[in-house]
Write a structure and sequence with these properties.
By secondary structure, this protein is an alpha/beta fold. It contains 9 helices and 27 strands. Helix 1 packs parallel to helix 8.
Length: 431
């Protein structure tokens, strides 16, 4: 098979990328999805809260996904469902397989990687104890309840305060189960505050910070977990152990970008994000291979995932049609004080002349008071923006205005940092 643009992954990023590539002039756009339906994780997210930024409406996950599916069908995007991609190489060859057509060899003008991410499991945490039934990741439990129609248990403890875990605490309570508590090893919330309020506080479900599970008890089925308080180095504190009776333990302890195919293709990965290094067009280090969505870094909102897919789709179509080559000199964006990572990691200074550039980043630790987000080069501070607070569970965004182009075009690196507000007044700069 041959196509102009091949999209690996049919979730929100992949659908948005395929649609925008088609709108940008790509004649043959192919979406390869290993599941039996499009939408990625969205079909199991039956709660609302999707589309507030993209559509200006409060939609459920399936409704949000269906809007993109309908648009893709209208534009004639080709789809291969129930198809597993086995290999991607730097020459933009894809080897895939399905039960209907066997082995497929696909040559693409450009490839967009939108494989999303997977959940961290018990094995990655090394929780001591027996290995009984009743230990699930929060996403698996969400699919069992919302799609398959099965209750994985009746008495739950949730480890981790990620958004899926918080949402499942509410969902299980509405289904008649008892959620005893949510344990979080960090001294602060790791999910969105709105989910904490709507899913825990509104249902009187306690959240214990600086606590973790140190043992799982049970023979054939989980019977109890042992929770303990931890110190600043996450070591359990002796004497604080508590036995919590339950029949199910849910894990909501983080997501890992799915980048095995990226490694096969020789794409350079960022240790901080777990995803590829990308520029403002979501180009990776391999010419003609693009990446967008949660495969690049884990986003809070599906709206951000879709927007990234649209940018990657347009850039991939331009590359496949020969309209634009890989940009030349790049500016490296570096994470400074209290910044864990910045996306994109590379920036073409010329992109600032085309309407500015939006940066996304996560902080290392939360600050619940006003701070300044600072962008600086060797010559000094170029931009400073005041924020009311910064939190781990909420992505920080910053737009670099067009007016910065004359000062950025000659530099090699830009550092982004969080500066705590001092007593004296600091003016915002940067235009």
């Amino acid at each position: 098979m041959r196509c102009d643009v091949a999209v690996i992954g049919g979730g929100p990023a992949g659908l948005a990328a395929a649609i925008r590539a088609r709108e940008a002039g790509a004649r043959c756009v192919l979406v390869i999805e290993r599941a039996e339906e499009l939408g990625g994780i969205l079909p199991q997210c039956i709660h609302n809260g999707f589309g507030l930024e993209v559509f200006g409406e409060d939609l459920t996950g399936p409704t949000y996904a269906q809007r993109y599916i309908d648009r893709a069908c209208q534009l004639g995007v080709e789809v291969l469902l129930d198809t597993m991609v086995l290999e991607v190489n730097g020459r933009r060859h894809i080897t895939a397989t399905n039960t209907r057509r066997g082995i497929l060899d696909i040559k693409a003008g450009a490839i967009i990687l939108t494989m999303g991410c997977r959940e961290r499991t018990r094995g990655a945490l090394a929780i001591p104890g027996t290995r009984p039934a009743g230990v699930y990741t929060a996403g698996t439990a969400q699919r069992l309840v919302n799609v398959e129609g099965y209750m994985p248990g009746q008495h739950f403890v949730i480890l981790g305060s990620g958004d899926v875990g918080l949402i499942m605490a509410r969902r299980l309570t509405l289904e008649g189960a008892r959620v005893d508590r949510v344990l979080e090893i960090q001294p602060f919330l790791s999910g969105l505050v709105r989910n904490y309020v709507q899913c825990l506080q509104d249902f009187d479900i306690p959240l214990q910070l600086s606590h973790t599970v140190v043992d799982i008890q049970g023979d054939r089925r989980v019977e109890a977990v042992i929770a303990a308080q931890v110190d600043s180095k996450w070591h359990p504190i002796r004497g604080t152990e508590e036995t919590i009776q339950c029949d199910t333990l849910l894990l909501s302890v983080g997501l890992i970008p799915e980048n095995e195919l990226s490694r096969q293709a020789g794409v350079e990965l960022d240790e901080a994000t777990g995803g590829p290094y990308v520029d403002e067009g979501f180009r990776t280090s391999v010419p003609g291979i693009f990446a967008a969505g949660n495969v690049v870094h884990v986003s809070d909102l599906v709206d951000d995932v879709s927007r990234a897919g649209e940018i990657a789709g347009r850039a991939a179509a331009e590359f496949a049609l020969g309209r634009r080559e890989q940009p030349g000199r790049r500016v490296r964006l570096r994470a400074g004080e209290n910044i864990r990572y910045v996306v994109p990691q590379l920036l073409d200074p010329e992109s600032l002349q085309r309407g500015g550039q939006r940066l996304q980043m996560r902080v290392r630790w939360p600050i619940e008071r006003p701070v300044y987000l600072r962008v600086e080069a060797e010559e000094g501070v170029l931009l400073r923006r005041r924020l009311r607070y910064v939190r781990l569970g909420e992505m920080v965004s910053l737009s670099l205005p067009e007016g910065l182009y004359p000062r950025v075009r000659g530099v090699d690196e830009l550092w982004v940092s969080v500066e705590e507000e001092r007593d004296e007044r600091v003016e915002e700069i940067g235009g």
